[in-house]
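Final report, closing paragraph on structural work. Over the funding period we assembled a curated collection of sequence-structure pairs, and we close with a single example.
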Amino acid sequence: MKRIVALVGIVFLLAACSEKEYFKQIYIGDMKEYMEEDKDGFLLIVNENDQDFQAYVKEVAENEKVEIGMYNSYLSEEGAEESNPVLPFDGFDRYNELYYVEDNEVKGNLDVESYEDMELTQELEHFVNLHK
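Its predicted structure, as stored:
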């Protein structure tokens, strides 16, 4: 009986560790995949981490099972803090904006600071479903 309980516990632990991360911090190398290597997807461009709207973006990413990469232009490389923003690609002209990139081009964007709470969630869901 103890072995079964231990086995079930290990299975749950492994399942939790292997859960896919739909909303994550990305860096300049990841941005290059979208803008130079034909990777399609959603990018949230920010100028600081831990803003209120980021929780809503994360929730929609997880609910819709869509990967959204968050790029902070002042943290272009892991562990490096920049004094000037690093945005080497055209099309990303505003911060706190969710972009959809396809075929190395920005195909759509959503200003996530323009909405609050439930309205933000609805707009994010609509934007994601429009482009996924």
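The chain is about 40% helix and 20% strand. Residues 5-9 have pLDDT under 50 and may be disordered. We thank the funder for supporting this effort.
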